[in-house]
Input
Amino acid sequence: MAVYLISYDLNKSGKDYKGVYEAIKASSVGGNTWWHYLDSTWIIKSNLSVQQVYEKIRLHTDSDDFFLVIEVKNNKQGWLPQDAWDYLNNVIFS
Output
């Protein structure tokens, strides 16, 4: 099992990117081990490879959109509310 950070710039104004969001959620374990507290940033726990996550998302983006899928380790620091830290520690990195 891996944890991935997904970040994107979706560039078509007015386009419905619901498919991108659903592909990200579907890539997570059980479809519900994802964290989306910051705009354009998701963290998911997944049984898929980084390539498989990329392929799921790519199906729903346009040629002028950009995104990054990168594996992350449990070495983190930042400024977030306590409930965000609790979810990261107890669900994503558990």
